[in-house]
Specification:
The protein is 24% helix and 29% strand. It is built from 7 helices and 14 strands. It has a 5-stranded mixed β-barrel. It has a two-stranded antiparallel sheet with strand order 5-6.
Amino acid sequence: MSISHADLVLNAEGRIYHLDLTPEELAATVILVGDPMRVEKVSKYFDTIEVRRQNREIITHTGWLGNRRLSVVSTGMGTDNVDIVLNEMDALVNVDLATRRIKEKLNTLNLIRIGTTGALQAENALNSVILSTRGVGFDNLLQYYREEALDVDRPVEKALIAFFAEEKLQPYVASADADLLAHYKPYADSLVMTASCSGFYAPQGRHVRLMPRFPHLLDKLKTFTYQNERVGNFEMETSGLYGLSQLMGHKALSVNVVVVNRALGTFAGDYTVVMDRTIQTVLAHLP
């Protein structure tokens, strides 16, 4: 059965709607960044760039680093944007856009996110690098998808839901790709579970004029343990990246530079040096 024009939207040039790309313009290994300005900070290390495309906050550069073809794509902030980007990237590699039919042989993308994060634990120092073993989703994205592929994470998910029974919160949990996690482990300062929040202010326990409904959410979250694993940091994208990647059959890893430590109340300020070093490390050790 072909996919309808309303479900799979192409623009007038035949490119997929939000990414504004054709299948040939996306590489099999994709570096994902939230900040559109960070795309060029990654692609400046490419030997050549063959595609430069921007639509709204989504910027794509595709090119070559040595004998590896790579894309770097900005998602913007939040799992809602991750939902758009991942669905459209998956369609580019796994749907025949001419016939609008799913391909018989599905392709797998390597998706490596490089982003900034806030630490929950005092020992996760500013400018350190965290790899996310799991994404703990306090957004509602995965409620709209069938979740059979996430059964491996169901025990920790049930433990978190019981932990937050008083608040009536129901986070979901999805894991990093085990191979990518093991590959980059030697280059990270710590491996922890990562909470993804649906906003920057009240969802992360901040208040300016409006008081958050759960002012002690982060204090409680940092005390959660599951088989000696703790939630060490929080941001706004990893749970959606991991959840959708598991459901679609892609490999994903989230690499996080700590710019805020909420336990200590500190902020890194200028983190350009450590971010640049992290980008170079990821690119130098591509699997």
